[in-house]
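Morning run. Coffee first, then this:
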Amino acid sequence: MILLRTGESAMRALLATLLIPASIGVLAGACAAHDEDDATSDNGALIGGQVATTAQFPSNLYLKTGCTAAKVAPKKILTAAHCVFDPAMASVRFANGSTISVSRDPVNGFAEHKVKEVHVHPSWVTACEAQYCAASSVTALMDAADIALIELEDDIEYVPSAEIDTTELVPKTKVVIIGFGCTKGVLVRDDRPNPTLAYAIGEIAPPQLLDHPGSPIENDKEHEIAAGNYALTYGPASYRQQAGICPGDSGGPLYRDEDGKMKIVGVNSNYTFFPDQQDKLGLPVSNWHTRLDGNSRQHIAEWLQSLGALSNDSWTKGDGGAGAGKGADQAGTSDAGTSDAGAQGDAGH
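And here it is:
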């Protein structure tokens, strides 16, 4: 699904529809939007990031429909709601008993697995029944969680499960952004013959990152909703050498490295941009990742536990942290501009 920004010109909308894979995705660009010469690359890897291997991230999966995902428990795959929910029909794309094609390395082909049930968070279903939720500017204002769990009939035995960490993410926390998405910009043709996995080191940003020209977030209430449902990371249009999620990255896990063990702390979902005249490539200012902690607005940790997606000791009711408001104490000035890498966007420019 392509998410198009409200107010986008017809030509840009057409370009995005023709050139971007059929799903919101993740990981591209890595420098300020005005530095166009530095923001493009022909190396086939995440701009500002690095090529990732299956050995490094063995739980990551690519859905043939165009999204990134991760196995989090036997027979269970975590991804974004918009990757599996049809906004036109307001229904799940994969019926019980249907098949879904997945791969850890699309170059080597896909394996088909029978779907037992797709669980889309109820808040997303309700919001998308009330409005056509196929634009990033629309979904950014929805008080809903962009998260889904695909339950399979049989386990993908050769893929290990990644543990979900429901600890609250606070500004300046280092994270790993990852996905199979485009590598140059949301509005740049993705000419790779096959999706390739890439990752970048990012940093959790304060809600004030959303206060920029072109952002759909305009008041305190909208800040409260966004911060309660999503964790933010810096995109390449906000700091040089930061990465941005890009079509193909949607649904991918946001990792935190805990003593050498990668734990999932979010899900790639959305992004924001500067106005069209300032942004010819489609480089995110902010990357949005669905919160998984216990005190997120939609109580995602409790929902995941009810579906058997959490390890027994990973969460107890009341854990996590509430979404910081617009005036979060940790705001201040970030040192993200000196980070080694970054990521690029997913929700549709």
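The domain at 10-61+160-338 is CATH 2.40.10.10 (Thrombin, subunit H). Good start to the day.
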